[in-house]
Predict the structure.
Amino acid sequence: MVFAVVAILGHFSKTLILLLIPQAFNFVYSVPQLFHLVPCPRHRLPHFNARTGLLEPSRVQFRKPLRRPIAASLKLLHRLRMLDVQVDMAGQVVSSSNFTLINLWLVWFGPMREDRLTLGLTTAQLAMGALGLFVRHRLALLIFTADNL
């Protein structure tokens, strides 16, 4: 809320939107669980594997078969490497990684220590923020005549 108030009062709300792209992506990515299209467990944070000492994507187990369009969507997301989906011998989806940006990072880069996960996510946030600022203050000048900070 502090960022929103400062952005509105400082007249740079469009810039703030660009800086918060990862958070907006996380919300859109989480929508299937937030709106209960697929089950949403209470805890969606990564799972700590005590044997290896690494964080792994947390999983949601499907106790009853999913509706066909939802199961097909999850399988498509698995092929696009946006989810880790487990399928039984009959082809039914039995579990998937939870729909959060943190779990997605672990799907992409594999299990890792907490400090490396934090460093990777922070670096990605900084890179997206820098890209947003570049777009807002350099590429926007190709369309608009002046930059209104």
